[in-house]
Amino acid sequence: MALFFPFLALSGSATTTKSILSIDKVGAASLTEQIDPIEGAPFNMPQFKRPVFPQLTVNIINKGATEIEPITTIINQAITEVSKQGGGTVIIPKGKWKSGRIILKSNVNLHLAEGAELEFPGTAEEYLPPVFTRHEGIEVMGPGSFIYADGEDNIAITGKGVIYGPPMNAEIRQRPNGSTVVENDITFNMPIEQRITDGMNGRTFYRPKTIAPINCTNVFIEGIRMERSTFWNVCPIYCENVIIRGITVNSIDVPSGDGIDIESCKNVLIEYCTLNCGDDCFTLKAGRAEDGLRVGKATENVVIRYSLAKEGHGGITCGSETAGGIKNIYLHDCVFDGTQVGIRFKTRRSRGGGVNDILYERIRMTNVGEAFKWDLLGSAKYVGKLAERYPPRPINKLTPIIKNIHIRDFIVESAEQVLNINAIPEVPCSNVLIENGQINSKRLIGAINDVDGFTIRDVDITCSEDNQINILDSRNILFEDVNFMVPTGKVITNIKGEASKNIIYRQKEEKIECKNKQSIKVDLLSQM
């Protein structure tokens, strides 16, 4: 059966794996001065330019700032004054500075000079009053972020300085980061102004992000380094026209220490970034469950290029907050070196929305756990019995839909496993195409479960320990010109489930064996 992708052309790529960039060509160390045109995106994107700010420049030292006392009041006053005068740049010079929450204003560039070290505090009281933000896809009034903005235009954070979260023994790190399940803290019908999560008077406390503007336009973040976050690092929310380039994140050993989370934003460019994270590296989100559906804002039109993900749960991850929809995502020329998963899609039955119209190409993966992973079930710890595959649940507004995923032109130099797809039987994952690549892995395919429309084409797969492909209740599965190099020389296909049908191998050699009653069709390309 031929698969139809309304979003993507299925013609073979002219790009060979020789054009895939090596690790020394990507990431913050390779940052260029100019912002190159966006080419190859299968959706309309603006051509981004470096922002322009008025000449007015204020150094916080000239406003009385010293390294002895926190600069919170001085820097926020300077930002407000510069914005009121039409805009300009506020400079944090070389030195070791301490500050509470910084609030950016329109037409202001907050510049951290080389050698500037900016540390944020470690007690909940220092993030008062609570501000409007999102926590894991749900709107709240909480600490927000170290550097925050709401409803501003043309804002920037630039320079070669370093932003530090509080020490690892800080008070806010000892507090629970809310409940394990956010929905246990916040009910859907609770007014936003009552969703106070500041940690005062026994209330829930959600740790601050590092940089999280909300409802802003024309956001520019470049060059800075972030260390020791308390939660997610860079997370624009409800923003439009966002550029993030040349930043470095180190949040290893920080629980939920995501690198970059794009949440319900439109028109985003991420390039030349290096992320080394305690959770997912490059992440796309769009709100959670009922609250995300109420807001109804997608993450759409995102380009990620020339970037490096090192340690982390996922190199590029869509989800798990998907309620508003994640669509029109184009990632190219990136390297994932040491992530648990290279390419990851995750959501849950109760999250809503979904992911569609995704193109990833020219990717190198090294030392990854799983090269490709789809997980729509999750853990009982978070969703209870909804994590059980059966029985199929009724389709409703909270049922996520994952479709139209195209991955091409890639090298997986070393992985523990090629692929796992664990979708949901009521709405199978559909229209997945993986083509033109090379994979070296210990194990083959652990699961293709609840899928309708999956193709691997023109891929060399070498597995050192495993020759098994496991298929459950999946249909319209095509392996076309896949060169399997596995122990025993035979690929064993284990097919289960009454819904499994139309499973086809089109191979140059007959290396396929089926263990089950369900039939597979093997076409030899030499005879076609």
TrEMBL record:
- Hydrolase keyword on record: yes
Molecular-function GO term, any one? polygalacturonase activity
Q: Which SMART domains match?
A: PbH1
Keywords linked to the UniProt accession = Glycosidase, Hydrolase
Q: Does the keyword Hydrolase apply?
A: yes
One GO BP annotation is: carbohydrate metabolic process
Concerning SUPFAM superfamilies, the annotation shows: Pectin lyase-like (SSF51126)
Give the protein family: Belongs to the glycosyl hydrolase 28 family.
Q: What is this protein called?
A: Glycoside hydrolase
